[in-house]
Amino acid sequence: MPHRQPLVACLVVLSLAQVVSAVEAPGWSGFEAGSWRVLRYSSRFGERPPQFEQVIRQTLTGFDSYGRPEFEVERLSGDEGDPAIELYRGAQTPEAWGLELRGEPEPTTVEVLGRTISARVKTYEGSDLGADRIRVIVEESDQVRLFPRVLSQWQTDTGFLLGPGVVRAVSERVDSRGTILTVQQDLLATGTPIEVGDRTVTSVVTRSRSYYQSPGSERGDPRQEVTRWLSPEVPGHLVRHVADLGAETRTSELLDFGAAGTSGATDPEDSTSEPVGAVSEPASSSRSWSSARRGPFELYEELRCQVELEIQVERVTVKEDLLADAEQIFDAVLERHYTFEEARSSPLWNSKEILE
What we know:
Order of helices and strands: HEEEEEEEEEEEEEEEEEEHHH
Largest sheet: 13 strands, antiparallel
Radius of gyration: 22 Å
Distance between the termini: 33 Å
Mean pLDDT: 75
Shape: globular
């Protein structure tokens, strides 16, 4: 069962070196050491039998000082050779990469899952240590509630961390020769059930397309197209991965999994994993809302008007359960009240309606 760390978030001041090196591990950070998964990897050309096939077991052993997960990988069956596993991608937000937000977010509408919803577009620009110019365009909506994901990049094992409301994201990297490397990720589906052994998990489906554009040329067809089925119920989030490389197709499929301390089973009633999101109507005090459980997830018909604060704290504070240290951080940024009357009497109250 995924383990939610009891303390989330806070605003801490990091040195430039820390910002550059620290990464997030959205697929693994909610799981304890000992969590594991069994994957079958195959590679084939056309309709021929797989040229390469392998089953591996990957066990989380912990995290290094930069937040990157560390693993023990065992080949269970199949072809000899190094375990064939998708390269782990750490992630940082565009800001942590050192990219700057250009202008204000622009309001727009996007087509998602057959519906038109309100969204905003954010554009980030900057460069990395290799002097490549980078631009990241993110379309996000308050009407979508997912879990953090990663937008991968060409020629690097670190990607951009996407927030829970992102429905589309594009990264463009221009090297010193003027070659443009583009990756675009789109949300295709939510709430998709998929079988893993004798269990069924609920997944989000995304599609990433990668383009290579030579200087002075037009962008052609994608060099590769990757479809992923992701679920926060499973360690690593990956349930299925299909990469279309043209002549070759590479597939990773989750066969079994277990979260440390749960005997390999996820209890729907006790799960604290992030929900697989649904597209909702805009929140309004005049609208009602309802929800229904699907496995461990609470799926909302309408978006409840609520505020969730994320305040980052250092990993050691969470790991060693240093509650007093965390409380000091909270007290610096929050004014807490325990009754509606108390809150209404605060000079900081904005006089908005409070639904009791």
